[in-house]
User: Fold NAD(P)-binding protein from Exophiala sideris.
Amino acid sequence: MSRPTTRLSLSLAKSCTPAVRSICRTTSKARPLRPTVAAQQYRLFSQSTLASSKASSKEPSNEKQAPSIKEKLPDPQQSPFRFREFDLNEKVFIVTGGGRGLGLTLAEALVEAGGKVYCLDRLPEPEPEFHEVQQRLGPKYGGALNYDHVDVREAGNLDRVISEIASKHSRMDGLIAAAAIQNVTPALDFTPEKIMEMLDINYKGVFRSAVSCARQMIKYDCQGSILLVASMSGLIANKGFTSAVYNSSKAAVCQLARSLAMEWGKAVNGKPIRVNALCPGRSQNDG
Assistant:
């Protein structure tokens, strides 16, 4: 019985040999690799881009190139490209407490973006740094930095000045309410007069500034933005920082921002006046 099996195996092997040889020939031949569709498209795109770049390099162009993000700002030579995503050209802003310190720093950023900024402060004259910023930025970036002697505790005068500014430009686009005072005193030593003085500026002054500007935004149909400068001390109590009244006033500003954002969500013909609170940490300044 073994011989028929052997013959069958030999005959099967002989019949399979041509097929095996054919497969070996096919697989042994090196076939050229075809690039994928994506690779072909990328190659065509690269070639067309290179060709266009060479053509453009031959032709002189009068357009200025946008600055690299690594360039240090501010750069007066690149003024047409400054704050492209944050363009405030011809827009009008009020900054209370803008005569020095944090208020002046925030006002400076608005001017750099092309805004017309009016700083209101109870100082008879702004700090020398104000005039330096005014001369350095105004002519170069298209914005303007102005100053008015205004005490935010005087609601009538505050309303009048803001109304005149809005009337001059027929618009009101934003407010940064940065006017505030600090008094590090233990709670047991705080007099009623000192409490009211701080609340008149830190809370009542912020409230009145926001209302005055919002009234002009509604009048001139401007979908504006209001930033109330609060503090991290309005959210936490720093150990050893004995300023309960200041902390309370800044906590009130945080809640004021929430309340006004809700109330003015559709104030300008169904469009919002945006209201936010900024809570910075400790900073070293004279304001």
Q: What stands out?
A: Residues 90-278 form a domain with the Rossmann fold fold (CATH 3.40.50.720).
